[in-house]
Design goal:
CATH superfamily: Endonuclease/exonuclease/phosphatase
Order of helices and strands: EHHEHEEEEEHEHHEHEEEEE
Strand order of the largest sheet: 3-4-2-1-14-13
Strand content: 25-35%
Structural class: alpha+beta
Shape: globular
CATH architecture: 4-Layer Sandwich
Oligomer: single chain
Number of strands: 14
Number of domains: 1
Helix content: 10-25%
CATH class: Alpha Beta
Largest sheet: 6 strands, mixed
Length: 254
């Protein structure tokens, strides 16, 4: 089973850049999209040329903002939107598909914003989102993919020193928040499989950052430790364009 996560930075935008052809090339069983920036009917229209998938979306109340979508070849047992806390559930950031052996969670973690204006909110989010992940994990193993909006270690960011505690996505608060997910028994699959590999999943549109590979690894697929021996591969696909993020994913056998 191949699971891919991709922040598309606007599903209608990426649709005009060969999205259907890219998805056919990726040939994934489940595709997690973040930052769809559209309402459900707009997403369905943008994906109308995509065959063979059930499509489920959770959209922000604010139009053109945030949003997550799951495409799955197999119909889930159920689909759950949001985490049950009204403060967080207006922005369309979490959707979960339950399958026989696991929960598949798609998340678009809030960005701490310009001048770290939302860092306090982000800290609250991390705590309450982790509690939700723990709830799911108490029932069956969890696969959580998405844009976590944090570079966890120095190897995950091209320029750690000038960004540390200055830039959204590389503050100690955010780093510690992510570490707690790992402490809770979730495994960063890419780093587990490739402990020393320098690879990024997001590049600023400024200053030719992608061409120079001045990037950040902020997109992850985490799995419960119970699933780790079933994960056969974990990968990042920087050659896939269309967004300022590239797809990341795993291959897992059940």
């Amino acid at each position: 089973m191949k699971i891919i996560s991709w922040n598309v930075n606007g599903v209608r935008s990426v649709q005009s850049k060969g999205f259907a052809e890219t998805l056919a090339l990726l040939d994934a069983d489940c595709i997690l999209l973040q930052e769809t920036k559209a309402q459900a009917e707009q997403i369905d229209k943008a994906l109308e040329d995509i065959d063979g998938y059930y499509i489920y979306s959770n959209c922000a109340e604010r139009k053109g903002y945030s949003g997550v979508t799951i495409l799955s070849r197999n119909e889930p047992l159920q689909v759950i939107s949001d985490i049950g806390i009204s403060e967080h559930d207006q922005e369309g950031r979490v959707i979960v598909a339950e399958f026989e052996h696991f929960y598949l969670l798609n998340v678009y973690v809030p960005n701490s914003g310009e001048a770290l204006a939302r860092l306090d909110y982000r800290q609250t989010w991390d705590t309450e989102f982790l509690a939700y992940c723990r709830q799911l994990q108490s029932k069956k193993p969890l696969i959580a993919g998405g844009d976590f909006n944090v570079a966890h270690r120095e190897i995950d960011i091209a320029r750690p020193k000038p960004n540390y505690n200055k830039s959204s996505g590389y503050t100690q608060v955010e780093i510690d928040g992510f570490s707690r997910f790992l402490d809770a028994g979730l495994v960063d699959t890419f780093r587990h499989k490739h402990p020393d590999t320098v690879a990024y999943s997001w590049w600023s549109y400024r200053a030719g950052a992608r061409a120079k590979n001045v990037g950040w690894r902020i997109d992850y697929v985490l799995t419960s430790e119970a699933l780790l021996d079933k994960v056969k591969n974990a990968f990042i696909l920087p050659e896939i364009t269309g967004s300022d993020h590239c797809p990341v994913g795993i291959e897992i056998e059940f």
